[in-house]
Amino acid sequence: MKKQIKLRTKMLILSFTLVLLSVIVSGITMLLSVSKSFEEEIGERAIAIARTISQLDDIRTSVGQTGGEDTIQPIVERIRLSTNVDYIVILDMDGIRYSHPSESRIGKKFTGGDERSAFSELEYTSKAEGELGFAIRAFVPIMNEEGVEQVGVAVVGILAPTFQSLLQEYQYDLIFSLIWGLLIGIAGAWLLAINVKKQTYHLEPYEIARLFEERSTIMENLDTGIIATDSRGKVTFMNKLAETYTEATYFKGMSIKEIFPHTWINEQIRGKGNISNKPISIKGEMYLISIYPVFVRNSFAGLLVNLKNRSEVHQLGEELTGVKNLVAALRAQNHEYMNKLHSIAGLIQLDRTEEALDIVLDETSYEEDIVLFLRNRIEHSSISGLLLGKRSRARELGVRLVIDRESYLEDIVEGLSSGDIITILGNLLDNAMEACENQEEKEVVCLIQGKKDHLYISVKDTGKGIPKACQSKIFEQGYSSKAKEGRGIGLSSVKEIVDAKQGMIRIVSEENYSTKMEIEVF
Which one of 108, 115, 231, 351 has the fewest CB atoms closer than 10 angstroms to its CB? Predict the structure, then answer.
């Protein structure tokens, strides 16, 4: 595997390169700016000197005259030496030199190429290459004493500083700036790298990329739908299964409320507590949804939404429930039959065989009657098994469980499963039998009627009743009148299932007398 460069090293190299380039570019820019400033300053100085020279009477009267150079050259040279300029040249109107630092050039024609405008009474500066190098030259017309006629031109030249000379002059400043810039840049890069590493949990970029790819692959191949949001509820990730469940193909930037419109989630999602395996209807299908808040360094960062197809979950649940109900029924029946066998054995030992035979026949006929009734009226064997198991359990508790003869279950309402009905019926019966505890009369009456488009369940007990103040709380998760740990879950599950199908729950209760709970789903 190719060795990866660490983030800290990358940042140091990058910082060093950037600072180096920055100092070099800024140094060049500075030198160019200084050069330009020098040229402007030199131009102003040169033109001021040229103006002064052009106003001298000896210059005015001698330029253009035979032997005028003898008068002009000494004057100009004194001025050149005192002002420290590189050269001063006086020209007549034919461009002939009357002065020059090199006397051999006096009397010869000026050939700079930038002097033409000066013979038209124009005053200006230019940069051109002369005999001594690149120079800033100021051209000022020389007028006669009356000031009405031009008689010549005064040219003052000052050599411009070259880039190499400026670089040599400012080299120590540039080196000083470069060293300090590199030190500050390296220190800043080091601190930034430490901070970035801390923010990324000391992971290198390639490690973060690998983790991202791994997590994405895992998320896409889970058998549950996964949706992630930011702190504002905007969807940031959705795996393929979640897209299939919600039919949200273009989810980027969508709000979680847009994906789950007209559901309880719009209200409860505002909180930051966990929601676990709560039923929800999406596009006519029932799912179990779990919502978990995500925190990054104790700061709320968004939500993780988990979607499961409830039919698949219930398929496994029904198998488990069927086994549990069967075991419970067998255990209860075994306990009950052992008591009856002891009674029968005692009667036989007392030679009261007729009474023993009556018990056997009564029990056999009664059980056959219940089993036959449930087999003919209840189409789903798992629900029949539940009722038989609860009936045996009721006998153990000394409670008389009556299955109303008007009960039937032809089919299950669309959107519900037999597991849902088992959950509803099982929890209602358990609560009803518990309510009869410590009561003189202990009876529970159960009625179930179901078709494809309608389900009605009624469970009535002779228990202690439910106070009105508590009726609105009994469906809250965790609430229980028994005040024991692990209680208060059953009825909340019942409400979630009924609410998911927008069904109704009614409670009719008389305190210290009875309670009737009715559930209706269409």
Answer: 351
Under DSSP, the state recorded for 488 is S
Measured between alpha carbons, how far is residue 158 from residues 48, 53, 166 in Å? 12, 15, 16
3-state SS, one letter per residue, for 230-285: CCCCEEEEECHHHHHHHCCCCCCCCEHHHHCCCCCHHHHCCCCCCEEEEEEEECCE
Other C-beta atoms within 10 Å of 11: how many? 20
Could you read off the pLDDT of 145-171 as tens digits, one per residue?
888 899 999 999 888 776 666 667 667
Sheet holding 275-282, edge to edge: 235-238, 225-229, 299-309, 285-296, 275-282
Q: Are the CB atoms for 516 and 435 separated by under 8 Å?
A: no
Q: What are 347's two structure tokens?
A: 């009667």
Q: What is this structure's pTM? A: 0.45
Q: State CA 514 to chain mean position distance.
A: 54
| Separation of first and last alpha carbons in the chain | 63
Structure-token match 């002059």, residue found: 169
Task: Give the separation between CA 29 and CA 35, rounded to whole angstroms.
Answer: 10
Number of Cα atoms under 13 Å in the Cβ half of residue 58: 11
Number of helices and strands in the chain (H, E): 15, 15
Nearest CA to 446 among 431, 466, 467? 431
Beta strands in 404-513 (DSSP E): 408-409, 443-451, 454-461, 504-510
* Radius of gyration of the chain from its Cα atoms, rounded to whole angstroms: 52
Kindly list the structural domains of the chain, giving each domain's residue range(s) and its CATH number in brackets, ordered by start. 7-167 (3.30.450.20), 228-308 (3.30.450.20), 313-521 (3.30.565.10)
Q: 381-424 pLDDT, tens per residue?
A: 888 888 888 887 888 888 999 999 999 999 988 878 887 888 89
Angle formed at CA 494 by CA 488 and CA 495, multiple of 5 degrees: 90
